[in-house]
Amino acid sequence: MAKYKVVHYINQFFANIGGEEKADIPPELRDGEIIGPGMAFKAAFGDEVEIVATIVCGDSYFNENLEQCIKLIPDMVKKYDADLFIAGPAFNAGRYGVACGSVCDAVHNILHIPVLTGMYEENPGADLYKSSFPIVSTKNSAVGMRDAVAKMSSVALKILKGEKLGPAATEGLLETDIRTNLFEETRGSKRAVDMLLKKLSGDKFETEYPMPSFDGVNPSPQLEDASKAKIALVTSGGIVPKGNPDHIESSSAQKFGEYDISGVTDLTEETYETAHGGYDPVYANEDADRVLPVDVLRDFEKEGRIGELHNKYYSTVGNGTAVANAKKFASEIAKNLIADGVQAVILTST
Predict the structure, then answer these.
(1) Which of 144, 240, 255, 289 is the most buried (most CB within 10 A)?
(2) What value, to the nearest 5°, has the Cα angle with vertex 16 and ends 13 and 17?
(3) DSSP character at residue 291
(4) Are strands 230-235 and 28-31 parallel, antiparallel or unpaired?
(5) What pLDDT score was predicted for residue 64?
(6) φ, ψ for residue 290, nearest 5 deg
(7) How many other C-beta atoms lie within 10 A of the C-beta of residue 49?
(8) Element (H, E) at 348
(9) Strand, helix or coil for residue 69
(10) Distance in angstroms (rounded) separating the CA atoms of residues 333 and 322
(11) Is 132 within 8 Å of 105 (Cβ atoms)?
């Protein structure tokens, strides 16, 4: 019996090429090679599936050359007449998740073959593509590789054999916005009462319609006297010194920058720009004060309307950035601001 043919996509890190310093490598086709997580997939698939090629691409290169990559990579896959295309798993790596989702979407739409990837639920790629094709739910880091491969290989084999996938919770997939009709032996009113009784008794139960959960943020105390306060600027609009010295990613940011503005009264076109890839940068690049109002706050400082403008500002890119990363950035930035005696922060976006 002929083996099913699979092409596998991974980034530079899982290909053992390197980390951020190698994130700019263009797509490479490794004919007949099984690399990184591919070895675990090979073991899980046994004799039923053959990984015929691996495609490697740097996360930065993919996200900065999206249109080029989603045309080039399906062409690489096409020559193998593959039965399935697998990407990742990406866990909670934002740029990697967006790349896995984008390339799966392109391969599926252009070559009309089934695709599969795996991500953590907060990965921005999951939000973008979870309703387009199956995405296996993974843990938030590569520590969960064994579990991810086990679930992905199980789903992959069902897809290859033409078996119908069950509910997301049963298959270990991320839930989608797609609802399908199921027939239950017990009517809905009785099931609802049974759940209510279990809840009242403190017994374990599982709702049939889980509601979304949103974080609550308690407001800070009111600023009593702005004329005596040290105020800082923080932005997710990507304003950075010219040349983006910290190489903050244009999408799915993995870092933030801290920049000294001592003596700076105006963010000029020659000295500042935006690294953000989610909005038209023309006006921000012409005058970065439109996103980060240093000029106005310097005027307020002179007029005594604020005590002083903090001599550092913090910047990152909100475009596609994972919630977990945003929380981590906020925690680190807040510690620095408190240590510097800042009493208030003005947060700006795009």
Answers:
(1) 240
(2) 80
(3) T
(4) unpaired
(5) 87
(6) -65, -25
(7) 21
(8) strand 344-348
(9) helix
(10) 17
(11) yes
**Residues 183-210 pLDDT 10s:** 788 998 999 999 999 999 999 988 877 7
DSSP letter for each residue of 167-233: -HHHHTBPP-S-------SS-HHHHHHHHHHHHHHT-----SSPPP-----PPPPPPS-GGG-EEEE
Q: Which residues, in sequence order, are CB contacts of 19 under 8 Å at separation 6+?
A: 12, 13
> Which residues have C-beta within 8 Å of that of residue 119, sequence separation ≥ 6?
88, 89, 90, 91, 92, 97, 100, 101, 125, 126, 135, 136, 137, 138, 174
Residue 335 confidence (pLDDT) above 90 = yes
Residues 6 or more apart from 57 whose CB is under 8 A from it?
9, 11, 12, 25, 26, 27, 28, 69, 73, 99
User: Token digits for 122?
Assistant: 């907060």
C-alpha to C-alpha distances, 70 to 65, 85, 122, nearest whole angstrom: 9, 14, 23
The owner of tokens 């890190």 is 13
Whole-angstrom CA distances from 348 to 10, 230, 301 are 35, 17, 18
Residue 223, Cα to own-chain centre: how many angstroms? 35
Structure tokens at 88: 């990742």
Q: What is the pLDDT of residues 157-190, one digit of tens each?
A: 999 999 988 888 788 898 876 666 777 889 989 9
pTM metric for this prediction: 0.65
pLDDT higher than 70, residue 326: yes
N residues, the chain? 350
Q: Which ranges constitute the DSSP H helices of the chain?
A: 37-45, 59-64, 66-78, 94-111, 124-129, 145-160, 168-171, 188-201, 282-286, 294-303, 323-339
Contacts for 291 with CB less than 8 Å, ≥ 6 apart: 235, 237, 238, 239, 274, 284, 348, 350
